[in-house]
Amino acid sequence: MPRLGLLVLLLLALAACTARGSETPAPTALRIAGSTTMAPVLNELAAAYQTRQPHVLVDVRGGGSGAGMAELRRGTVDLAAVAWLAPDAAAPAGLDAVPVGRDAVAIIVHPQNPLPGLTILQLRALYRGETLDWAALDGAGGEPVLVSREEGSGTRAAFEALVMGGDRVTLNAIVMPNTSAVVDYVARHRNAIGYVSAAALTEDVRVVPV
Question: How far apart are CA 206 and CA 190, in angstroms?
Fold first, then answer.
């Protein structure tokens, strides 16, 4: 299964911030925006941090990895949650990339789709729009309904880098705004296939071995 690294990017200046003296700290806010894939774990980390540092209010927002990066550059947030940074890529100038965990890109179908598995090349052909019937891949008959993510999604960037190999996802793919929307759609449509964070899997969809 393709691996997907989860990163939080922060301004280098923030890394130098330290508590001063023993005086009672003033109330402050820590603003995080970006990957919807990372939101659940970031909310848990925020709750744990606020237990130890009650004067800090942590505000976690989604919007996608690209949106989080844009907000960080504008200075409207303190941290950007980014779900994909290529292994050989350096952090953008002026930012420091701090890994906080690892995840996997899971390929999902409707539970009633008997598709036994896919190779990377078969998956790539599907998302190029070249496979017109599930029967060609030993799945249930019918035209595959391809579900992708919006521009700026870290999960989409990972899928395109690890699976598509530079090829473009067909324009006929349905574009969803977040991970839960992909899971929801695939769970309700027998011929649908999508890709999501493994952390977002539910019993309403089935993971296809790759």
Answer: 11
Global model pTM greater than 0.90: no
What does each C-alpha distance from 60 to 28, 40, 45, 82, 179 come to in angstroms? 14, 9, 10, 13, 16
CB burial of residue 174 (10 Å; 0-12, 13-18, 19+): middle
CA distance 127 to 112: 20
On average, the pLDDT of the chain sits at 86
pLDDT, tens digit, for every residue of 70-115? 898 888 999 899 888 777 777 777 788 888 888 889 999 999 999 9
Burial 78-92 (b: 16+ CB within 10 A, else e): bbbbbbbbeeeeeee
